[in-house]
Amino acid sequence: MCGIWALFGSDECLSVQCLSAMKIAHRGPDAFRFENVNGFTNCCFGFHRLAIVDQLYGMQPIRVKKFPYLWLCYNGEIYNFRQLQKQFGFEYQTLVDGEVILHLYNRGGIEQTASMLDGVFAFILLDTANRKVFLGRDTYGVRPLFKVLTEDGFLGVCSEAKGLINLKHSMSSCPKVEPFLPGHYEVLDLKPSGKVASVELVKFHSCKDEPLHAAYDTMEHLPAGLDLETVKSNIRLLFENAVRKRLMSHRRIGCLLSGGLDSSLVAAMLVKLMKESSVSYPLQTFAIGMEDSPDLLAARKVAAYIGSEHHEVIFNSEEGIQALEEVIFSLETYDITTVRASVGMYLVSKHISKKTDSVVIFSGEGSDELTQGYIYFHKAPSPEEAMEDSERLLRELYMFDVLRADRTTAAHGLELRVPFLDHRFTYYYLSLPAKLRIPKNGIEKHLLRESFQDSNLLPKEILWRPKEAFSDGITSLKKSWFSILQEYVDLQVDDLLLEKAAEKFPFNPPKTKEGYYYRQIFEKHYPGRADWLSHYWMPRWIEATDPSARTLKHYKSATKE
To answer: Can you say whether the dihedral through the CA atoms of 224, 229, 232, 236 is positive or negative?
Structure first.
């Protein structure tokens, strides 16, 4: 995990512009480099490093002797860089996994490069010999990327929008800063002046397509049958493979553990594979909650069962409320459910960063979208509509759960890893018949649970624990985080303000006091940038005015189990 930043064709003094690069310093606390491009005085790269692999030669932009005309700045992990080296005979100059991008590009151009990367990434690749700039981002947008391109060809690119909004430029109106779309790459011409012109934006991968790199995977071919035993075995094999490949790190590995199905499966599989790989330290697991929260109790049970070194972070309602402004600033969104769920993750990440030596943090993001884990899937009119909505949620992850998971951890210099969003795992799961994937017997994610039923990875009561809304699971059953927030914002936002919300905020007008309160904070830091969020996250197929699972009729509390 790092912070990348680059400018092409800046008319302003670069020493002034480079102050914007410091807005993302939290993403790379280990080192910083600012470098001009030879022959292009108004083009430069900025890089904040979190050293995970190759402590010696890992600084960026990456340049190698073999390709002196290529400059690469990237944030991510490429898990198949060794397989590709073996397959194509690449001669690496460093131990940095991202170096493979230079070799792939030299071998087959940008289209093959992006499609062959098994991992999470956002990159800026400059080819001075052919005067081209390339931008690319992984399928689910696990690693963030924003860009600004003015009418006269000034390009700014950054891991987070906050590194672009204060750039100096010659336009009279404010240029649009926008997220770079996941699963896409863009080709831009670099003019002698350092300015650029966009040539094409290409979608190189979607979640339903088998990834091109699967052909070079070290994993054996899976049995093709659709009988239940074969499917369950394939799910187990692919999930294990997804976790194993993500063990690549020179820094200590930890895992967020809410005690729900997803994080518990990740933690249990990590313990198993770390033992098999003879990792010299125990897995640290981290849970957060208020006193007597369901998540704390369940996480304790899981940690005892798998034998992790377990840490609990207890917070109170004042600490949660006090964190709201810095959380919204870090997130760059005002989406209600995202902000709610981010507070706990932000506070636990702060604890990990300050009190432990774990830096690479595993988490369960992506499973709810992939395996239809949200409560509202019980109300889906048909398996086909449930399948379509699952795919929509995966396409939109970069605005919601993946955004939350990246920004809350990156704010404290941690690197996030999300095995449920592994390309091969998601492709296989989405290729299964729609009726296999829907909730069954009143239980969501039934197929995933059933696949691990006989694995002994987890206690049965955890494997079959009903879904908790993350923002609510961290608080007491007597009074949810949802209720605490409602009481607080009720005193902060006047009824009259809410009545006139549509006049003040015509785009995505807030419908509740909580939504209004978050929007006010967002506009304070990012005025006029509301279109970074195209719509609020809300459940489907039901009459809902609030995204909290606690407000849905199906919601089961631990007291009823």
So the answer is: negative
List the structure tokens of 40: 């292009």
Burial 315-343 (b: 16+ CB within 10 A, else e): bebeebbebbeebbbbbbbbbbbbbbbbb
β-pair type (67-78, 62-64): antiparallel
**Can you tell me the distance from the alpha carbon of 358 to that of 311, in angstroms, rounded to the nearest whole number?**
12
Residue ranges of the chain with per-residue pLDDT less than 70? 1, 52-58, 468-473, 475-477, 548-561
Two structure tokens written together for 532: 């970074």
Q: Which helix (H) or strand (E) holds 40?
A: strand 40-49
| Helical ranges in 159-203 per DSSP H | none
Q: Whole-angstrom Cα distance, residue 101 to residue 70?
A: 10
Pick the closest to residue 63 from 24, 99, 27, 115 (CA basis): 99
SS3 396: coil
CB atoms within 10 A of CB 496: 7
Q: How many CA atoms lie within 13 A of 222 on its CB side?
A: 23
Are 146 and 177 a contacting pair, CB within 8 Å? yes
Tokens in use for 146? 């924003």
**Using an 8 Å Cβ cutoff, are 102 and 64 in contact?**
yes
Alpha carbon separation from 335 to 113, 150, 321, 478, 536 (Å, rounded) = 34, 27, 16, 25, 6
Based on its alpha-carbon atoms, the radius of gyration of the chain, rounded to whole angstroms, reads 23
Give the three-class secondary structure for 561: coil
Which of 485, 457, 480, 448 is CA-nearest to residue 557? 480
Q: What is the pLDDT of residue 177?
A: 96
* pTM, 2 dp: 0.94
- Give kind and range of the element (H or E) at residue 67: strand 67-78
Query: Which of 481, 511, 161 minimizes the C-alpha distance to 343?
Result: 481
Q: For residue 128, give every residue at least 6 positions away whose Cβ sits within 8 Å of its Cβ, in sequence order, or none.
A: 37, 38, 39, 40, 69, 70, 71, 190
Position 559 scores a pLDDT of: 36
List all residues 6 or more positions away from 3 whose beta carbon is below 8 Å from its beta carbon.
Answer: 21, 24, 25, 26, 27, 28, 46, 47, 48, 75, 158, 159, 160, 163, 410
Strand partners, 119: 78
pLDDT at 481: 84
* Residue type, position 388, single letter: E
Any idea which residues carry the catalytic annotation?
2
The shares of helix, strand and coil residues in the chain, as percent rounded to the nearest 5, are 40, 20, 40
pLDDT, residue 31, reads 80
Query: What token pair was written down for 510?
Result: 């807030």
Tens digit of each residue's pLDDT (9 = 90 or more) over 508-537: 999 999 999 999 999 999 999 999 999 999
Contact indicator for 282, 252 with CB cutoff of 8 Å: no
- Listed in sequence order, the DSSP H helices in 307-422 are 317-322, 324-331, 336-355, 367-370, 383-395, 401-410
Whether omega before 61 lies within 30 degrees of 0, making that bond cis, reads yes
